[in-house]
Write a structure and sequence with these properties.
The protein is mainly β. Helices cover 0% and strands 45% of the residues. It is globular and about 40 Å long. It starts with a strand and ends with a strand.
Length: 119
């Protein structure tokens, strides 16, 4: 079955950088796009970024465009979210999901990794 395991979350200072990882298994990773969504405290899930199967096409929410990138390593079955110039408003639980989508409802997704932004 599909397994998605996020890691790399933690404490980051405003203006800092952090890279999240998502290890995928249970499906042919190179055939699928992947997506990151996030859920801020007390808020609904929010779509963040998506990448197609080959890693050649990406889309970003306006909130993260220019600050985050979503590389995909098909040789390692891993997805990443490279976060830079992190803002307090980026604090959330980040989830990776299987599929190329701009919808926050995308499933299946992993258990999430917490990103805390604080000085």
């Amino acid at each position: 079955q599909v397994q998605l395991v996020e890691s790399g979350g933690g404490l980051v200072q405003p203006g800092g950088s952090l890279t999240l990882s998502c290890a995928a298994s249970g499906f042919t990773f190179q055939y699928y796009g992947m997506t990151w969504v996030r859920q801020k405290p007390g808020k609904d899930v929010e779509w963040v970024a998506t990448i197609n199967n080959a890693g050649k096409s990406t889309r970003y929410s306006d909130a993260v465009k220019g600050r985050f990138t979503i590389p995909k390593d098909n040789s390692k079955n891993e997805l990443y979210l490279e976060m830079s110039v992190v803002k307090p408003d980026d604090m959330a639980v980040y989830y990776c999901a299987k599929g190329f989508s701009t919808s926050e409802t995308i499933r299946p997704r992993g258990q999430g990794t917490q990103v805390t932004v604080s000085a």
